Structures are given as structure tokens and as C-alpha cells.
């Protein structure tokens, strides 16, 4: 199993980095849209949508994604301030307010309409964040994604070695508070290294703590949905890793929040314009 995971990672990581730094913006947007569509397909499977509904669900997302990508034409791909202006705050409200309640109550949502909306709120803002942050700077996007990947790995190893106190035993029995502590410690070291290397404000570490916490929230939400659907993985596309949602669950919650913070000038300009 470990060998399969490592082999898959050895293929995916160079391919992702090549796309991140080499693809023109419209093609990066479409590639990330393709990944988002796979994630939505996995979501619709776990939500037990009828086959016809699943295809309509994906088709509607394709239309919206392609339209947004080429709103201003290929030469100015994905500069849609309107989509960012509304999409990121709505995603933040979803993750900060609604998801904690969802996790605390472990509500089993059965309405297909609510599940469709939830799927879009989980996947679509992630796509917006991936494209908008990469447009600012590919290195910035990679640095933020590394926070989540480092936290996930640190939590796994710290929990495996020291874990005794369960974090959410009814949702994901393998997660522990010791794992959370390990994630925060290692992420702090990562943030400290960046601060010293690039002369950044140490408050960056606090921001990394926030991203770490919300990456765990995203992980827990997907674990809850899988548990309620009675599946071990969201899919089987990635050997040894499961599905796309299994790999991006921590990013679904943390990346839109990071993008919202970095796009605050957009809201300030809108506020000044309307004042």
C-alpha cells in the first residue's frame, strides 16, 4: 500500500508542479476545472444522486466554469472580480459558520438540493482559489498548499506516534489531539523558516495556524460524508490515495480562506467605489 502511494505521488507531484509553473492561465484554469469536476462526480456518488442528476450536475458546472474562464477572452483568463467578490465570502461563511454546526450535530442531510449546494460550496470556491492565487504568483499558491500538506503529514505521524486523545471519534476515529498539536508545531516551524528566509512578519505563523485548523475541518467534513455514505474512499482514481476529494479535502476549506484574505483589497476598492 505504501509503495503504491509513493509511486502515485512520484507521478502526480512533478506533473502538478509542471502545470503550476508552465501552463498558460486559461489552460491551468481548465485543468483545475477538470479536477473539480472529478471531485464533484465523487461527491454526487457519495450523495447517492441518480445517474441523470449526476450528469446534469456536472454539465451545469462545466458550463459555469468554462464561461468564467473565458469571460474576458483567453488573453485575460479568469480575471472575474465578480465571481471572486461573491464566491470567496460565501465559502468563508460556509466553512466558519455552517460546517462546524454540521460536524457537531453530525446531521445526515438527505435533500438532494442541499447536497448539490453543499458540493458546489465545497468544490467551486476551491477552484476559484486555485486559479486566482496562481494568477497572483505560482510560488504563493504552492507555499499555501504546502501548509496543508505539511500539516496533514505531521498530524498523521504525530498521531500515530503519540496519539491517545481522540479528536472526533464518531467522525474519524484515527484523528487525535496529539496529531493536531504535531501539525501546529511543524507548520509553525515552516512559517518561521519562511519568515526568516524572506523577512516576513511573524504574524504569518498565526495565519498558518488558522489554515491548519480549517484544513482539519475540511478533512473531518469529508470523513463525515464518507461515513454516512458507507464508503472508505471518495473514489479510486488515485491508486493508494483514493479519490480526488480524499487528496484535496484539507484544501477545500483552507485555500478559499487564504484567497479571501489576499483579495481583501478587492473588497476595499469596491467599498470605496460605493461610498
Quick take:
This protein has ten helices and two strands. With 275 residues, it is mainly α. The N and C termini lie far apart (58 Å).
Helix content: over 70%
Strand arrangement, largest sheet? 1-2
Radius of gyration: 19 Å
Major sheet: size, sense and barrel closure?
A: 2 strands, antiparallel
Give the number of DSSP strands.
2
**Contiguous helical run count:** 10
The rounded distance between the terminal residues' Cα atoms is 58 Å
Keywords:
two-stranded antiparallel sheet, about 280 residues, mainly alpha
Describe the structure.
With 275 residues, this protein is mostly helical. Helices cover 79% and strands 3% of the residues. The protein has one domain. The protein is built from 10 helices and 2 strands, in the order H-H-H-H-H-H-E-E-H-H-H-H. Strands 1-2 form a two-stranded antiparallel ribbon. It is globular. The termini are far apart. The model is unreliable at 73-79 (pLDDT under 50).
Set down the secondary structure blueprint.
Elements: H1 2-22, H2 25-46, H3 51-69, H4 81-105, H5 112-136, H6 138-162, E1 166-168, E2 172-176, H7 177-198, H8 203-229, H9 244-262, H10 264-274
Antiparallel strand pairs: 1-2
Helix pairs in contact: 2-3, 2-5, 4-5, 4-8, 4-9, 5-6, 5-9, 6-7, 6-8, 6-9, 7-8, 8-9
Amino acid at each position: 500500500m505504501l509503495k503504491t502511494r509513493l509511486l502515485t505521488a512520484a507521478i502526480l507531484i512533478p506533473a502538478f508542479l509542471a502545470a503550476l509553473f508552465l501552463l498558460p492561465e486559461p489552460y491551468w484554469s481548465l485543468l483545475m476545472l477538470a479536477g473539480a469536476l472529478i471531485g464533484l462526480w465523487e461527491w454526487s456518488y457519495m450523495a447517492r444522486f441518480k445517474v441523470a442528476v449526476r450528469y446534469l450536475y456536472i454539465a451545469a458546472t462545466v458550463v459555469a466554469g468554462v464561461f468564467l474562464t473565458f469571460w474576458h477572452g483567453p488573453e485575460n483568463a479568469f480575471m472575474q472580480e465578480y465571481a471572486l467578490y461573491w464566491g470567496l465570502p460565501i465559502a468563508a461563511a460556509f466553512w466558519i459558520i455552517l460546517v462546524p454546526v454540521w460536524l457537531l450535530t453530525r446531521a445526515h442531510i438527505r435533500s438532494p438540493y442541499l447536497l448539490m449546494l453543499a458540493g458546489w460550496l465545497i468544490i467551486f470556491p476551491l477552484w476559484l482559489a486555485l486559479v486566482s492565487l496562481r494568477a497572483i504568483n505560482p510560488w504563493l499558491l504552492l507555499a499555501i498548499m504546502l501548509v496543508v500538506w505539511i500539516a496533514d503529514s505531521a498530524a498523521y505521524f504525530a498521531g500515530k506516534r503519540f496519539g491517545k486523545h481522540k479528536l472526533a471519534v464518531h467522525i474519524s476515529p484515527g484523528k487525535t489531539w496529539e496529531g493536531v498539536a504535531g501539525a501546529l508545531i511543524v507548520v509553525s516551524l515552516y512559517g518561521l523558516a519562511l519568515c526568516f528566509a524572506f523577512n516576513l512578519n511573524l504574524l504569518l505563523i498565526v495565519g498558518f495556524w488558522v489554515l491548519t485548523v480549517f484544513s482539519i475541518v475540511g478533512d473531518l467534513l469529508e470523513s463525515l460524508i464518507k461515513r454516512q455514505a458507507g464508503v472508505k474512499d471518495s473514489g479510486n482514481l488515485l491508486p493508494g490515495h483514493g479519490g480526488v476529494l480524499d487528496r484535496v479535502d484539507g484544501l477545500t476549506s483552507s485555500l478559499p480562506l487564504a484567497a479571501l484574505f489576499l483579495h481583501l483589497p478587492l473588497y476595499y476598492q469596491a467599498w470605496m467605489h460605493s461610498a
